[in-house]
Structure formats: structure tokens, C-alpha cells
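Researcher: Re-running this chain for the archive, since the previous output was lost when a drive failed. Same request as before.
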Amino acid sequence: DVMDLFVKSARSFLDGWFESEPVKAAFGFDAVVGNYASPDTPGSAYVLLHHVFGEVNGKKGAWGHAIGGMGAITQGMRGACEDLGVQIDLDAPVARVIVENGRAVGVRLENGEEIRAPRVIANVGPKLLYDRLIDPADLSPEFNRRAKAFKVGSGTFRMNVALSELPDFTCLPGKDVAEHHQSGIIIAPTLDYMDRAYIDAKRDGMSERPIVEMLIPSTVDDSLAPKGQHVASLFCQQFAPVLPDGRSWDDEREAAADRIIDTVTAYAPNFRASVRGRQILSPMDLERTFGLMGGDIMHGNMSLDQLWAARPFLGQADYRGELKGLYLCGAGTHPGGGVTGAPGHNAAKEILADGSWLGRLLG
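Model: Regenerated C-alpha cells:
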């Protein structure tokens, strides 16, 4: 079964366990989350497994909601760091990692300020780090080749919408808060639907009927919206990181957003009229706003050649970068994407080990 999960497509794996198409679709969705691929793509079964590895409050395979929104997690981290005397600087974009004698010794900010340190720990993806923040002259030609070949692009399009009322689904009518409103609502009824969405995106840049997961966090956290109103996130798949024929996401983002709204409205007829505002994040927006190269929410493809001992590169799965003093701790390292904290936890152990007397002796 382990070998099957690594090499089989999600469809092939699920066909061996289930007969029901809706059941296979419910599981199959996790095979394409953050994965610009079809459920028929070899290796997509592993992406399914990746999304059910964790647990929340002791419930294996479950996902949780952070009260106060995802920002509450980073605010909690900030508070813990500041209690220990850590200084956090915001609005201080890094222009370049400073390298001297083959060692990372600090960073240069876009305003020209230099910050020196014995270690540089990067939470950005490997593509951004090695393509834009480190001078290629400071890396070997062979490593530059490997870094250029690192694959990114998760096919993800994100939207956040403000709603005047809850979606009234034709299959489960009602605008009052119900169990399904407090769950992940996946619009992708079959594996064939997902496959067609991917084929559309490969051909046209975006799917005619995209895969949509809707979450309405205000149904479990009333701090997020005024009473009687709601906010929802639309996590959508099968939108090309780079549009074909020279088209730009700057020109296509509104049309893509309308297509997503239409897709939801086909299942909840009141949805379009209930939208009072929307925030659009195309793959290009995700790159510009959050530094997610190719709009990749996983910091790199979740394919077998970029996983486990090969994430981000063979020989560098121990969180140590190509340069001495450089460490990576984000989703572009093992075990990959998802809000787990595991890459940072593992990286911290290696950094502490290198800082021990034995580590300094061997380093």
C-alpha cells in the first residue's frame, strides 16, 4: 500500500478501495489541493495522503479552524517570540543574502540597510531564495542548474468574499447555519469533473468549471463578520500558473473570479446576489503579495522528485542550504506544504545541533 501511494494516481488508488463515485471524489479532492495535476496523474495518490497525515485536538486526519482567523497563529508566534526578547521587523523586504567566502553572513534590505548574523534562516520557498535573493555567482554552476529546474506552480486561485447571507444549496436548502455550512464544502462531484478541470486549464489557462472548496469560518467564529453576515474563502484549483498565448493574469483575474462565482451559484442559486465584496488572488497575485513563486502554496511541486530526501534537493533535505550559515525552514523543505509547523520544528533542531560545541567542532 505504501508503494501504491507513492506511484499510483489517486483514481487508481481509490478505485481499489471504493465503488461510489461521490466517495472517491471526496477523497480525490485532497489529491489535487495545491497540486496542478489530474487525479489521473501518477503520484497524485501521495498528495492525497499528505493532506490526511496530521491531526487536530487528537483527531487524526482532521483540519481545524484558528479562532480569529489564520492571522491568530502568526500573532501567537509573534507574542511567544517577543516574550523571549526577539525583535521582529515588518515592512523590511530583503533584496539580497550577503555572502562572503562561501558563507551566508546576513541580508541586505531593499532600503540598503545591512543586517549581519551568524545564521540566515529562510522561510521563503527555495525558488524565491535561490533565483532572486542570492547572486548566482555565489553558487556553483551545477547548483544553479538544479535550482533553476526546481518546479513550482500549484494551480491555485484564492478568493475571499463578504456575504449578506449564507449559501442556500439546492441539495440542502436553508439559509440558517447548518452542519454543512460549518464544514468544508467541495464543489467537484466526480473524479472525471476534476480531470476535465485540469485538461481545461492546461489548454485554456483556467477550467471552465473549476474545483472549488468553500469554507465559511464565520459560522464557527462570530468575530469575523457582523451579526447576520458572513465571510467565506473560496479555495480553487486548476488555474495555470502562467497563462498560454502571452495572456496576463492582470487582465484575466476578474473573469476567472466571475467563473468561480458562477460555479458556486450553480449549486447555491442565491450566492451571486449575496456577495457584497470580494478579494481576488490569482497565481500572479499570490506571487506578488506573498512571494509564492508561480502562486505555489506549497513552495514547490509535491511530486516524488521533490519530496522526502529530495526536498528541496537531493543531498539538502537536512534544512541546511547550499551555503554555510544558510538554513531553510519553510514548506519547500520536508515534509512540505500545509500549516503543520513541522519544517520549522525540524529546522530548529538542526540549527541548535550546529550551534552545540560538537556541531561547531565538526562545522
